[in-house]
Task: inverse folding
């Protein structure tokens, strides 16, 4: 977002159906790779994003991930997990009308040019940017599973599973996957790839190569949530047992 003159913003809001939203900070703490991470980001109050236009953004199902992990285990493929840094802010804003933000009580106005967190269009704008990047690299987006992308390189295949800003890269050749990940990281900022990642999207993945199986649980996440909400140990054990059956 870029600061603009108050009169310019007010005129656009009055005469061009531009939207005005207020900014507020969101604080978060979470465990990541055994380290407690504290984060803060500015978020727009999307309730006043009235002229957003189309906001649909596909989200992959859990079953799609389970099927992909089954394929990975059965074919003994390697897989890597990466996460894009400050993801939404890297995508251009594509709302129907211009949009502005300001702090409550503040006098400065800012025009939005990126997919700011909180906008109704932000998930769609970011997803379209991800699709553009992957298609530029040579991937084809599946029609029925629109968050899965496939690339063929000679006799090898690379598959990308996209859950918002989390990505799983897998395929028939680790060296080819590594090369594709390098190309992807050259056009966006991501975390380092974690091969055979044991924690993905709140789930624990336990790989058993000799059995060609990957065990998926949410024991750690369930315990973490229960601890925060003062759930008793007996209830924690019950939740874990029921989920992991």
Result:
């Amino acid at each position: 977002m870029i600061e603009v003159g108050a009169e310019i913003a007010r005129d656009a809001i009055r005469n061009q159906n531009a939207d005005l939203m207020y900014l507020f900070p969101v604080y978060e703490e979470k465990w990541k790779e055994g380290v407690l991470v504290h984060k803060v980001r500015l978020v727009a109050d999307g309730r006043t994003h009235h002229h957003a236009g189309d906001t649909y953004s596909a989200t992959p199902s859990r079953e799609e991930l389970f099927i992909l992990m089954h394929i990975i285990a059965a074919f003994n493929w390697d897989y890597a997990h990466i996460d894009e840094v400050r993801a939404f802010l890297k995508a251009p804003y594509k709302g129907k009308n211009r949009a502005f933000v300001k702090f409550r009580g503040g006098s400065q106005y800012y025009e939005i040019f990126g997919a700011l967190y909180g906008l109704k269009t932000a998930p769609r704008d970011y997803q379209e940017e991800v699709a553009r990047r992957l298609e530029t690299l040579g991937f084809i987006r599946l029609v029925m599973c629109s968050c899965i992308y496939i690339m063929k390189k000679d006799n090898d295949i690379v598959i990308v599973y996209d859950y918002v800003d989390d990505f799983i890269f897998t395929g028939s050749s680790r060296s080819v996957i590594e090369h594709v990940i390098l190309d992807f990281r050259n056009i966006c900022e991501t975390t380092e790839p974690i091969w055979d990642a044991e924690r993905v999207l709140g789930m624990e993945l336990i790989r058993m190569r000799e059995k060609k199986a990957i065990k998926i649980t949410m024991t750690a996440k369930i315990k973490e949530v229960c601890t925060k909400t003062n759930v008793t140990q007996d209830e924690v054990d019950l939740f874990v047992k029921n989920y992991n059956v």
About this structure: The first helix runs from residue 6 to 15. The helical segments are 6-15, 62-75, 122-136, 174-185, 219-228, 233-243. Residues 198 and 205 are 5 Å apart (CA to CA).
